[in-house]
Design goal:
single chain, mainly alpha, Butyryl-CoA Dehydrogenase, subunit A, domain 3, three-stranded antiparallel beta sheet, 15 helices, 54% helix, 12% strand
Amino acid sequence: MSTAMNDPRPIADQTPPRHQTLPRPAMCRHCGLLQTIPALDDSSSASCPRCHTMLRRTHPDSLNRALAMTMAALSLFGVACLMPLMSVSTAGISLSADLFTGPERLQQRGIWELALIVLFTTVAAPFLKLLGMAYVLIGLKMSRPPRHLRRVFGWIERLRAWSMVEVYLLGVFVAYVKLVDIVHIDIGLALYALGLLILTTVAADAVLDRQAVWEEMERRGLSDESRGTNATVMLFEGRHPASCETCGKVGFLGVGSRPSCSRCGSRLHHRKPNHMARCWALVIAAIVLYVPANVYPVLTVVHLGSGAPSTILGGVEELLDAGMYPLAALVFFASILVPVLKLGGLIILMISTQFAWAGRLLDRTRLYRIVSVIGRWSMIDIFMESILVALVQFGAIATIEPGFGAISFCGVVILTIFAAEAFDPRSMWDAAASSRTTS
């Protein structure tokens, strides 16, 4: 089964067959279409018939399989934190680095903002995400699960975009290629653990049916809704529907009311409040920071007494001069092209919404999906720099120091991530529908 259909009929109050979900109302998070997801068997999916956004994908024994994968990922993360990533040596001097060394070196050089962001995205966010997921899945197996499980799971969903282990690993690879001609490098056990961690977390995310987690919380009595309330019947009683931004449950807004989601407790809004103003402010701030991010050096490499500050574009040119064309293309795409495409894409989305353009809605929705996913990969340059600063400190032989441009560039990446989260793509469809009605 591949597509959810509009279906105004009430959901039958009955227990679904084994390995089958009940039909449920849903609102597409990308186009705002209100619809009913039909009953799904295991390994089935439902997508929006208007914009083709995936609404739900079911998996057999989802919660138990996800718990097993999450526990394995936690073990691998422990290895990655306790063991060295890489060791380098030259002229009889040896240095090693782990996940904490880069942020520590950045902080020692007074760039505490960069140190904090690297530490959060590579250690804190991934660990809290895995620990919180394990806590929720284990808690649901208890005879009386804690009521705060729904709050924990809601925060896990918010941390998902900030857990950047896979981006960090790619940054380590870029650092390795840049260092291989300067020093002797030994790969540490933590690097292999990170590779396995990424595979394990991808598998855990793939087998987890998040709606099954929320439904299990409802079944175990962790929601606030009264017993026997039929959401689909309420859907057609004239109140304004709203989809919870945290758990996706459809709720209803009365005149003058400010209700909360009955399932996760989050505040309900028909659309993200003030999303256009917030998105414009974040995009403008990112554009302002983009100038010093490309003008000022991101790092300075001194090898045997010679060297000069290097900007982002200068780093790409160095890779081209060294004949590392695939790596140069990767850094150019992630560090230069992606921020420009993301800022340009957001501007197009906002202008088209404000002018109520009715054309190419599907293409603009696809553009939003791309913009909301690719921005985090620009952190490759920041993670690479944290590794280089940690490993290359050999005095007059070879030294790498961070530059001010790295702070500005990191600010651009963070602001564009927030801007993509602030924008509400459903407003594009609302504006187009309004334009057709008035014309």
